[in-house]
Each structure stands twice: as structure tokens, then as C-alpha cells.
Amino acid sequence: MTENIILVGFMGTGKSTIGRSLSQTLSYPVIDTDQLIEKQQGRSIPEIFEEEGEDAFRDMETALLRSLLKQSGHIISTGGGIIIREENRQLLRKMGYVIWLVASPEEIHNRTSRNNNRPLLNNEDPAGTIRKLLETRIPLYKECAHLAIETNQLNFDEITTGIIESARYYFSQPE
Ligand code: S3P
After folding, report:
1. Residue extents of the structural domains in the chain
2. What are the φ/ψ torsions at residue 8 (nearest 5 degrees)?
3. What is the dihedral of CA 43, 96, 12, 150, to 10 degrees?
4. How many angstroms does the Cα of residue 31 sit away from the middle of ligand 1?
5. For labeling, which of 96, 101, 118, 169 is most exposed (least CB within 10 Å)?
6. Does the pLDDT at position 2 exceed 70?
């Protein structure tokens, strides 16, 4: 496989962990868009949101995707809101095989409540925010992804194996 495998999904669905696991198993380098933006900017995502706002962060995501368009043979794990912009959804599909990691709102709440590095959930009602954001985003993940994987009942090894098998099949098909 020389193309990219791209992970999309809501905050707390395990994109970074699964990305690292895929990277180890396939010996593909991993690109984590949140980490790369933080590195390029020399500041954290909460700082970017606080100093410049969400729109500026979304511009950074789009600029980064445009710059990655020629990359191949990478695992790319993305920030949960990268699918909001239509241009990003199109870029992601052009870049490779897009997997949507799905988890229940309860599981997402559980996983994201362990730290406070997600500005969109730093408010009085993170569970309500998760439900509202999911409602608007689910159709966008659906539109962008080639495959959805329900993660609630699976461990990381099972998810990794499932992704590799389906990616092999996808890349073996004629266009
Ligand atoms: C965001 C998700 C975060 C990060 C930023 C915004 C979102 O990434 O990009 O806080 O809008 O869902 P993770 O999905 O890796 O938490």
C-alpha cells in the first residue's frame, strides 16, 4: 500500500492512538494534524483558540491539508472538526482511504473528560455540547469517509487489524 490511510472522527474516538498503532504495524510514518499545527505555530490548540479563535484554527487545518496533498504512504490522524469545511472533506478523500472512527456520546464524554485540552468542551455542559456537535457533524463524517468503524465493542488491536484489511482491499480495487 502506498496511499494514505486517514482517520477522521469526533474528539475522543481514539484517532491518535489508532494512528500510532497503524503506523507501528505498517511501518508508515504518522502525521497528526493537531500536533503538526501546534508544532508549526509554536503554541497549543487551546492557546490558538483563545488568541485567534476557531476560524483561524480552521484556516490552519485547511492550509495544512493543502500542503499534504502530495504525500503518500502515511497514516494521517486528524482533529475532530476537520470535516466541517467542504474543501477539507474533498481534500481528505483525494488524499487516501478515509476511515471514520465512531463512538457513542457517553463513551466520548467519558474519554474526553479526562483532560481539558479541548477548548470546545471546556464549558458547563460538555455532554450537551458533544450531543449537539455530533448532530451537525455525523452527516459530514458520513459524507467524507469511505468506511465507518464502530469502536465501542472493539479493542485497539481489533480496530487496527480491521482497518488494515479493509485498506488492503480498497487499494487493490481498480479506480
Ligand atoms: C476539535 C478537535 C480537536 C482539536 C480541536 C478542535 C473539534 O482534535 O482539533 O480542539 O472541533 O472537534 P481531537 O479530535 O484530536 O480531540
Report:
1. 4-172
2. -120, 165
3. 180
4. 15
5. 169
6. no
Q: Is 127 exposed, middle or buried (0-12, 13-18, 19+ CB in 10 A)?
A: middle
pLDDT, residue 116, reads 84
In this structure, the strands spanning 30-32 and 4-9 are unpaired
Among the listed residues 42, 46, 52, 141, the one whose alpha carbon sits nearest the alpha carbon of residue 93: 141
Q: Is 45 in the pocket of ligand 1 (CB under 6 A)?
A: yes
Report the atom number in ligand 1 closest to the C-alpha of 9. Answer: 14
pTM assigned to the model: 0.97
- Read off φ and ψ for residue 152, nearest 5 degrees: -55, -40
CATH class of 4-172: alpha beta
Q: Which atom of ligand 1 is nearest to the CA of 118?
A: 10
Return the sign of the alpha-carbon dihedral for residues 92, 96, 100, 101: negative
Q: Does the beta carbon of 89 sit less than 6 angstroms from any atom of ligand 1? A: no
Contacts of residue 58, defined as CB under 8 A and 6 or more positions apart, other chains included, come to 81, 84, 85
Q: 32 CB under 6 A from ligand 1?
A: no
> Residue 8 pLDDT more than 90?
yes
